[in-house]
Automatic annotation (TrEMBL):
Its EC number is 2.1.1.144. GO terms for molecular function: trans-aconitate 2-methyltransferase activity. Pfam families: Methyltransf_23. It is an enzyme of class 2 (transferase). The lineage of its organism: Bacteria, Pseudomonadati, Pseudomonadota, Gammaproteobacteria, Pseudomonadales. The keyword Methyltransferase applies. This is Trans-aconitate 2-methyltransferase. SUPFAM superfamilies: S-adenosyl-L-methionine-dependent methyltransferases. InterPro entries: SAM-dependent_MTases_sf (IPR029063), Trans_acon_MeTrfase_C (IPR023149). It comes from Pseudomonas fluorescens. GO terms for biological process: methylation.
Amino acid sequence: MSWSAKQYVAFEDERTRPARDLLAAIPTADVRSAIDIGCGPGNSTGLLVERFAGAKVRGLDSSADMIEAARKRLPQLQFDIADIDTWNDSGPFDVIFANAVLQWVPDHPTLLPSLVSRLSPGGSLAIQMPDNLNQPAHRLMREVAASGPWADKLARAAGQRTEMADAGAYYSMLKPHCARVDVWRTTYHHPLADGAAGVVEWFKGSGLRPFLEPLDDAERAEYLKRYRTAIEQAYPALADGSVLLPFPRMFLVATR
């Protein structure tokens, strides 16, 4: 799947807020080395630089477009193109930061302990993942995909996201390898000024990508038309024309 940095940062303030909340929960104080895995356009990497002054901060992402944007934003840092599930840098790192990325990476029971093993003693793995596959916006993506003439093309689109475990399962994955594991879930309510169109634009930068990429231009336009009509019913506009988009997210901070 390809990523568009321009589309993603259209809602940069809203997308960065969970990263700030995640960063604030990291207990590790003496940080000399930090890495932002799945750094996107560098918005979350910049937060690491601000929080851990003097630390060596790096970023990596599988998208060349995202890495190009990150390098322009923070030219003094090292950014690499890499897939997280095959990334083999042993570190050690005092902080591994993974904001809104591991929902795209499979096999969490293997991946998360592997990431912890790359931490220095007292280091922290900080993870935030959208936990919204059962929200109307995602359910409607699947329904529109299954009910249109593109059903065969999109049969595998929903499987691009990794199925989320519950809080207890993530705690159990991490606790045998960590001194402390903190798990919580927060639902943000984002006001989108453009109503249903704003909801569609939001997800064009993330969850809709696997559904749109296999389609040709005409199919993509028709898919988005049907999806927007469904979104209008699921997320009624408020009196001022805006929509309040509920967005649940899972947070994990595991300290070695």
